[in-house]
Request: fold
Amino acid sequence: MATNALELSGIEAFYGDSHVLHAVTFACGPARLLGLLGRNGAGKSTCMNVTVGLLAPRRGDIFVFGHRVTGLPPEQIAARGVALVPQGRRIFKSLTVRENLVVAARAPTDGRPASWTLETVFAMFPRLGERVNHIAAYLSGGEQQMLAIGRALMGNPRVLLMDEPSEGLAPQIVHEVMNTIRKLKESGLSIVLVEQNPTLVFDVADDIVILNSGRVAVVSTPAKLKQENVDLRQHLGVF
Ligand SMILES: Nc1ncnc2c1ncn2[C@@H]1O[C@H](COP(=O)(O)OP(=O)(O)OP(=O)(O)O)[C@@H](O)[C@H]1O
Ligand SMILES: [Mg+2]
Reply:
């Protein structure tokens, strides 16, 4: 069996005394797209924070292409080829588009050629190319999201984590973002896409994991969930 791109195994995570993730275990295969669903507060972002080294799990392990990265600082996990598009975008608002991208540039450490450069990011997102010297604060919400994705790509990741990239965007822009995600998947990236809206994720995901109160409640595929007519409302609320 091929090595998983990303594996979380038995993760227990806390904020202070608050126990937020309970034995969380899931895996994203190479060049696959895993949709991570769950309602507000289910623990989705905490899974992302644990994966990129922003929060050390109290127990459990994280593997990136078979290498254990548990407890490593974020910089070293990034060097293993993991990049996060954080919830709320978190771009540098006072910097230009170019500056936001350049500060995130990282050559692959495993000998792969750097497929993501300013040129290839602008080919993917022409609007960013047109606004290369604009201050990020003055971009539209959709453009800021594209910049956040572009910034993650500049790290030339093998595993891309995206935390609610559709949040706060108009439907037409969400459609564009989802098309971009589809292209990235076709390019061979392994992707974890965090969303609250299952219909968005079911369209692009190979695999689905649903978190409920910090526990993995469902591991399946969009096709199986549809076929079994699983009632997702108990895990996801009204959508
Ligand atoms: N920095 C923090 N300190 C303390 N508790 C936190 C912190 N961040 C999140 N939590 C709590 O941890 C739990 C999981 O939060 P998390 O942000 O992982 O959820 P989420 O699934 O990403 O939710 P959302 O869809 O709203 O982004 C929630 O109960 C939340 O209140
Ligand atoms: Mg979140």
About this structure: The mean pLDDT is 94. Strands lie at 6-15, 18-28, 33-37, 59-64, 67-68, 82-85, 159-163, 190-195, 207-212, 215-220.
